[in-house]
Design brief:
Largest sheet: 5 strands, antiparallel
Number of helices: 0
Helix content: under 10%
CATH architecture of the largest domain: Sandwich
Shape: elongated
């Protein structure tokens, strides 16, 4: 199985196989069409399938708990693609860092108990499908962690 993503602005493109190389010049697609033969070839390869990448979770929230931990919660992806797990990322400034790499797809919250006092955190989630790849990141939830006991 391979994944193909596009946007309204995408030009026709080649399909990339699971080995990381183009399936060939024989398959091209654009955002209005199903896979079709390249003008210089007459047929599609039989082993090509296209699946949608999952949608990201929505309604991401981060809430400080009384014990000083941070509850991160979200609404599960409404994806038409199978979500196998979620990844939570955070940042204080700069690059996004992994917080939790593989949370079960039926999970809609996570408690983080090692947040630092006096820091503003951004949190976001990504849906991951083993067959079709990763979603775009969710919208970020912002939390100022003040007065936590460390």
């Amino acid at each position: 199985m391979l994944a193909v993503t596009t946007s309204e602005a995408s030009p026709p493109y080649e399909v990339i196989g699971s080995h990381g190389k183009p399936v060939g010049p024989q398959v091209i697609m654009d955002h209005h069409q199903q896979p079709r033969p390249h003008p210089h070839h007459t047929s599609l390869q039989d082993n090509v399938s296209v699946s949608a990448v999952p949608l990201p979770p929505t309604d991401v929230e981060a809430v400080r708990q009384h014990d000083g931990s941070v509850l991160i919660r979200w609404t599960a992806s409404s994806s038409n693609s199978t979500v196998d797990y979620y990844t939570i990322q955070y940042r204080t400034v700069g690059d996004w860092l992994p917080l939790v790499d593989r949370l079960s797809a039926d999970t809609t919250s996570h408690v983080w108990s090692t947040a630092s006092r006096g820091v503003v955190y951004d949190f976001r989630l990504i849906s991951v499908s083993r067959n079709s790849g990763s979603s775009l990141p969710s919208n970020a939830a912002v939390l100022a962690v003040d007065g936590l006991q460390t």
